[in-house]
Sequence to fold (242 residues):
Amino acid sequence: MADPLIAVHDVQKIYKTGDVEVHALGGVSLEIVPGEFVAIMGASGSGKSTLMNILGCLDRPTLGTYMLAGRHVAKMNRDELAETRNEVLGFVFQNFNLLARTSALENVELPLIYRGVRAKERHRRAGAALARVGLGQRLDHTPAQLSGGQQQRVAIARALVGEPKVILADEPTGNLDSRTSTEVMGLFQELGSAGITVVLVTHEPDIAEYASRVVVVKDGLIREDTRQTPRVAAPPPKAGES
Ligand code: ADP
Ligand code: MG
Fold:
């Protein structure tokens, strides 16, 4: 088996607010290899977002270790961490987090602006990322001119434009109807076939069916970790359509 891209070992997360301690994660170990499509499931409050925040290097474990792409996250300084996050990770959110009154193309270009990529190259790469998610004809549209599913595809293009190894998505279909959710899951499956690792949080069993592995979290612990034959989603719309 390939070296894990993500390896958390015995990770605990304790939040302290005043005198109250919340054990959000109670000792989680998880290895994810390149190309896996993992759905993390669990009831509200079970620790899914806490785990995702740690995987995304947005938060640090209280105890335990996290190796991302072979590197100890706790041992990296701020710059190294920022660089590793940029190189390795792409993020997709439930609420899309797109800039309003800003075109799809510019939204997707944003991560490249932060990285100092020149305008011409930015346009080219952002256009290619939007074509990849089937929105090649919608470059000038603002979020308000796009459906929810299309907005989420713009957000996925924004995550892809930096050529990440892993996409982390917290409830990416939470605001979408079921047909659109299936489309988005089909898109994630396609990215998976192209070698991108996808880790997705959902509380919906029908969404988890599209993943190749389902990890169930309960009260801050992994209770199940199952590999499965993913349900096949209809292929996403081709570039230029929809
Ligand atoms: P999920 O995403 O599965 O709904 P979370 O990871 O958000 O669960 O939360 C797990 C537990 O940790 C919950 O009891 C929640 O209230 C608590 N929690 C989450 N974030 C914080 C925080 N920043 N401060 C204190 N408690 C928190
Ligand atoms: Mg959550």
Summary: Strands lie at 6-17, 20-32, 37-41, 63-68, 71-72, 89-92, 166-170, 197-201, 213-218, 221-227. The pocket of adenosine-5'-diphosphate (ligand 1) is lined by residues 15, 17, 22, 24, 42, 44-50 (CB under 6 Å). The chain has a mean pLDDT of 94.
